[in-house]
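Homework help board

Subject: predicted structure for assignment chain

Our instructor gave us this sequence and asked us to write out the predicted structure in token form, then describe one feature. I got the tokens but I'm not sure how to describe them. Can anyone check?
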Amino acid sequence: MTSLYLIISILMGLALMALLLRPGPARPVALWLLAALLPVLVSVTAALYGQAQAQHTLSDFNPAMQDRALAWRDAGGAENTSTLSLSGLDAACVVRAAQRGGTYQLSTSTLFVPHQAQLLGPWPSKAQADALMLSGQLSCRRVSRADE
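My token output:
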């Protein structure tokens, strides 16, 4: 489907170039129509390509509950580790929180995800978390900023 839209966009761009190079009696209406539709087709093509890439990235995503470890250093420099049982979607929210920096809290526990926390074990990749967000499957209602 993406390639079809890409081919149509290219053909419309070529038709627009041909009309710009050769004047004719129906030129203003045709130019306006092609110039108006070309950005729409390009944006639809880009959106479809992004969705296809997201689906490809999520082909090996595991949404099951798993034990996942989180390690961080406290203010005194001591290392702390905590193990959580999270679904794949909640784990992807924690991955996004760790990427953005700041301190985040999981609403299901009293655990805070501190700034520069290290994720150990079977966590989703950054690409998977981004693909879940792009495809609309990730809402992250259970992970919030600690100061909210």
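Reply (TA_rk): Your tokens look well-formed. For the description, you could write something like this. Residues 9 and 41 are 6 Å apart (CA to CA). That's the kind of observation they're looking for.
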